[in-house]
Amino acid sequence: xxxxTPVAAPATxxxxxxxxxxxxxxxxxxxxxxxxxxxxxxxxTIVADLGGLEHLSWVVTAYILSSTVVAPLYGKLGDLYGRxxxxxxxxxxxxxxxxxxxxxxxxxxxxxxRTIQGLGGGGLFVLALSVIGDVIPPRDxxxxxxxxxxxxxxxxxxxxxxxxxxxxxxxxxxxxxxxIPVGGLAVAGFLASFRPTxxxxxxxxxxxxxxxxxxxxxxxxxxxxxxxxxxxxTSPQILGLAVLAVAGTLAFLAVERRAAEPILPLGLxxxxxxxxxxxxxxxxxxxMFGAVTFLPIYLQIAKGDTPTESGLMLIPMTAGIxxxxxxxxxxxGRTGRYKWLPIFxxxxxxxxxxxxxxxxxxxxxxVFAVSLACVGLGMGCIFPVxxxxxxxxxxxxxxxxxxxxGLLFRQVGGSLAVAAFGALFAAxxxxxxxxxxxxxxxxxxxxxxxxxxxxxxxxALHVADALHPIFWVAAGLGALGLLFAxxxxxxxxxxxxxxxxx
Length: 502
Known about the structure:
disordered C terminus; Growth Hormone, Chain: A; two-stranded antiparallel sheet
């Protein structure tokens, strides 16, 4: 395998430049994360303007799908050609897609533009975490990774709020246009502070492996996005996609065994730290994204909150992520250890999900806030650790590849859980309440407004009961993650930055 030869960096790395790199990359990561959620509150307005109601879900799915399938490729390209160059390409695609989204005049045009935007956004997710491995010593990465982990929590809360504000104050086009000046400023700061070297080697890109992995991930994402909603789980379309996902995965594994520079080296799975943290990330992503996705339904239907109020009610989770990730980062920086953090994190997830499994329409705000805070504390203890531990354990030339793989497992875990929990919720919700048929799950705040109070109370109780099994399953996933955390090997974090070949 042809790998870059490490080039020694200067003995003194300017702290201000390192901070500017972190701020710039963090801002780019925030933009990419926000674009997964910021569109949600604007979708009704977009449909009223462009039409194409039958294609509405693809405005969201197109971004998630394209960003997921390209993540592993960006990780490998970053390792081979340098993170600086791949960040420029990724940001360029993201901003181009953003501009095209703002210019869209038809729903089809918007979906294509969102796909282009996702092709860039998927790279930002991976490269943001990988760049930190280049400029920050392993023992200090936890602090920064913790902040980046909090970005995802913050984006899930403020995305819908910002989207709604732009729609009301300006127009839905500015949801996308705002990315251009902010993204341009962030990439300018990154280019001014992240110093490349002149080292270049010949490369062999595993294009066949990348294509097969993209096919497998695309099929899997489509199954989870369309199954049980657009098409039935036993429909020819979903069964065909499932077969394609399995066949693509098997073909990918066969190709990776023979590739000169595999996009996902199978040898990484021989490292305890890699496969255990990947399993923990998969489970944590499934537990968090799969369960928390349905909390707005509880808040808006069972509690009667407005969309804005429901977004604000999720703030305790973000506060938990920020608090725990900050403490976890300081602990890793001071001790160079991380073994106990995912154990505590999975324990908090179990506790938080068990508390959420008891929510009712009359659950008080403090009780709900404590439940969410426990989930946030769990996430804050897990996500910074799994990334930092992997970057510390794998060879330097595989840092970006391993980082991308960890993020991939987390996203796939969340996608699968959302689909499975959605099917479970729909099955539990099916039936009629006071003559109102709920089999399709088509309920919303507008529908509630026209119902008698007694019917609303009965519906609220029915929705809360339908959500309980989701949190029981999520608690079980957290317990499984705890078992994996117990067998995680601890490789003491290095106190010096590994020289980079960028």
